[in-house]
Amino acid sequence: MILTVTPNPSLDRTYEVPSLERGEVVRATGERVDPGGKGVNVSRAVTAAGRRTVAVLPLGGAPGALVADLLDAQGIEVAPVPIAGPTRSNIALAEADGVLTKINAPGPQLSAEEQELLLETVRAQSPYASWIACCGSLPRGLAPAWYADLVARAHAAGARIALDTSGPALLQALRERPDVVKPNAEELAEAVGRPLSTVGDAVKAAEELRGMGARAVLASLGADGQLLVDEAGAWFGSARVDAVRSNVGAGDSSLAGFLIAGGSGPEALGLAVAHGAAAVRLPGSVMPTPADLDPATVTVTADVPTDRVLKEPAS
Q: Top-level EC class, please (predicted)?
């Protein structure tokens, strides 16, 4: 079982539009409503792959009730933490050329009692998990050290931790040695305090994160592919994608694939790349099923192309 923790979940509305014209009426050609949040997306991807998952998340108000109903309809077990404030609602606008505009609400503020109940719920579910994926931003009320506390408690219980967050929350959690961290290129650049222009820059930055405590780094480099750096070395994975429909949740789908495959080594990287590539071909934040994967388009190599200039340099 893969346990996911989403401290700041959301109700996500995605609209497909021909293009955005500021100040004009834009008529959507498609609409979806999905349970959102990075950990929620990981659980959705794990379920789509036919594996068991439990999603721990604070839920409040009508949006929170709808998130729970949507997850239940998808066959996802939920370990809810009741909170006083309403769960946030987010909007994504997906243009026909693949450009995505997201409007993310800040979310509710959790009280000290709600924060502790969230940690206690994770503790209660931990003995049954092969991995715990802690994902996303922290809601108001949670200090940056909250993830570090969670990683420490999970390790004390013998669980393995995958962490997907950024900024001070990531840097503080590194001291507790999470088993894998999954930054994108921008988050990786922010963590080391310098821009990344090449794949080699990303490798060096990942090695620095390992020096700060991460046992492994799974870095998403957008259209360029993904990078895995751990104690055994570095691997680079990429896949051919002919058309991008939506990249919402693609990184979360990648993390799910990585953990489903065991969470280490080039084979896990290959499944991560396959899941990410499949996700961007689907609308909104739809998670891929095994039938959507195309392993033949995936390449994983230990011959990392360090001189390759990133298509989307990170600053």
A: transferase
Catalytic residue flag (residue 252): yes
What is residue 96's DSSP assignment?
T
A 10 A CB-CB count for 121 gives: 18
Instruction: Provide the whole-model pTM.
Output: 0.91
From the list 252, 292, 294, 303, the catalytic residue is 252
CATH 3.40.50.720 fits 2-314, yes or no: no
Q: Which amino acid is at 206?
A: A
Distance CA 137, CA 108 (A): 12
- Whether 284 shows a pLDDT value over 90: the answer reads no
d(CA 262, CA 272): 11
pLDDT, tens digit, for every residue of 238-256?
998 887 887 778 899 999 9
134 closest CA partner among 305, 18, 5, 256? 5
